[in-house]
Amino acid sequence: MKFKDEIVLITGASNGIGRKLALSYASEGAAVITCDIDEEHGRQLVGEIRDQGGSGYFYRCDVSQPEQIKQLMTTITHEIGVISILINNAGISRFKSMFDQSDTEWDEILNTNLRSVYLFSKHAAARWKEKQLHGRIVNMASTRAFMSEPDSEGYAASKGGIIALTHALAASLAQYKIRVNSISPGWIQTNHYDELRAKDHHQHLSKRVGSPQDITKACFYLTDEENDFVTAENLVIDGGMTRKMVYEH
Question: Which family does the record assign (predicted)?
Answer without folding.
Answer: Belongs to the short-chain dehydrogenases/reductases (SDR) family.
